[in-house]
Specification:
The chain has helices at about 25-30, 80-105, and strands at about 35-45, 60-70. It is of the alpha+beta class. Strands 1-2 form a two-stranded antiparallel sheet. One of its GO terms (biological process) is leukocyte migration. This is ITA7 protein. Keywords: Glycoprotein, Integrin, Membrane, Transmembrane, Transmembrane helix.
């Protein structure tokens, strides 16, 4: 995939322009998983837009070859399914132990209001006819 980039150059007095790039291991393993050897051709072109029309660039296009070799021992292997199952079961067991311990300590009991010190009296409803 080509990515254009632009950068301001304060002066063009140097006769050499260098650019560096990286190809991450993850990109190599994701994009080219079935390939053991890969050769990339990198092309770069330089163009200058200047208010002055007197800027001349020699060799404005460059090309180079990059060879990549996959080391099978370094490649990331997939995690076996039984390891994932075992980790999930151990996690659920740990969660069950935590809930059981909190239940035994009374963490899930409902907090009740203390009994009032003054006794409560029941309100009596008086019908209108007896008044």
């Amino acid at each position: 995939r080509c990515l254009p980039f632009r950068c301001p150059l304060p002066s063009l007095e140097r006769s050499e322009l260098r650019a560096w790039g990286r190809l991450w291991n993850g990109t190599f393993l994701e994009e080219f998983l079935d390939v053991e050897n890969l050769e990339l051709i990198v092309r770069a072109g330089v163009s200058v837009t200047s208010p002055r029309g007197n800027v001349v660039i020699k060799d404005a296009v460059a090309q180079m070859s990059v060879s990549l070799h996959l080391d099978p021992g370094v490649a990331v292997a997939a995690v076996p399914w039984w390891v994932l199952l075992l980790a999930a079961l151990l996690g659920l067991g740990l969660l069950a132990l935590l809930v059981l311990g909190l239940w035994k300590l009374g963490f899930f009991r409902r907090a009740r209001a203390p009994a009032p010190a003054v006794p409560r009296f029941r309100a009596v409803r008086i019908p209108w006819e007896q008044r």
